Amino acid sequence: MIAQISNQFIALSNWRRVVWLSMVQTFANLGQKNALGFVMTLAEPLIAIAIIYAIRGLLKNNNPNYGSSLFLFYATGFLPFYMFVRLSSRARNSGSGRGRLPGETALDAYIAATLIHSIIWVGMIIMLFLAMWWVSDIREISNIAISVVAPPMILLILLAMGIGMMNSAVTRYIPIWNTLYGIATRGLVFFSGVLHIVDLQPLWIRQYSIINPLSHAIEWIRLGIWERYPHNSLDKAYLIEWVLICLFLGMVIDRASLRTVGR
Question: Is the Cα dihedral 210, 84, 127, 150 positive or negative?
Fold first, then answer.
């Protein structure tokens, strides 16, 4: 019995070492091939916010959808949304098997890629919020409830990993899926509660937004910034179910596709 427990601890320690080395390798490879592309990846949500902000300025409609800052409202939507898009994309690419370490499985690569890119994105979001608080002194930022914001952020990360694994499997059979997925996910921005409050959307849009798990994550995040944020459509259990199902299907489908293509 003691020997079995000892072997399990050794196996766990070896697994942690493999994941850590994979994370180090992933971080070392970031930006080597296209440093400008990596910077633009992080800047894309800020550019989107700036464009929307400029358009509303031209229309002389700078009143915030909620709260005291229009920029903060869009930041709490675009940043989590693009974090999901990029993490699911990075997880998908990590399953290709190229440059994999000895003894590293596809699941190890998914976990390592998700962890390292999550750290980068969460760090960027924190720095941006601190910068907004320092420059403009937006009062809502100082009242952010971390205990409320953290769970939906973690669920978004896990959802991205699960969908990334499924996309990796699909891409092995349909290479053009990479492009189609990128276009489709950006189109979801209109049905994710990023631009508007879901509860106040027209019924024909709201019925699609509440189907999208991203809208529930964004509502949950905003609830940690604005305590009275309208959230009648928020269903936390629905988001959790999506995460669990996607993780399960991702692991099963990815494993099955690896056997089918002979990798």
Answer: positive
Following DSSP, what letter does each residue of 165-225 receive, concatenated? HHHHHHHHH-TTHHHHHHHHHHHGGGGTTSSS-GGGS-HHHHHHHTTSHHHHHHHHHHHTT
**pLDDT at residue 251 greater than cutoff 70:** yes
Q: How far apart are CA 53 and CA 137, in angstroms?
A: 19
211 versus 170: which is more confidently predicted? Answer: 211
Token couple for 171? 């891409």
Q: Is 31 left (phi over 0), alpha (psi -120 to 50) or beta?
A: left
**Residues 157, 118 contacting (CB under 8 angstroms):** yes
Predicted pLDDT of residue 8? 58
pLDDT value, residue 59: 72
**pTM of the full predicted structure?**
0.85
Model pLDDT for residues 99-131, shown as the tens digit of each residue: 566 566 777 788 888 888 899 899 999 988 888
Read off the DSSP letter of residue 101. Answer: P
Stretch 55-77: mean pLDDT: 79
CA distance 5 to 182: 45
193, 194, 170, 192: which is closest to 181 by C-alpha? 170
Helix (H, G, I), strand (E, B) or coil at 142: helix
Contact in structure between 42 and 128 (CB atoms under 8 Å): no
The CA distance from 2 to 4, in Å, is 5
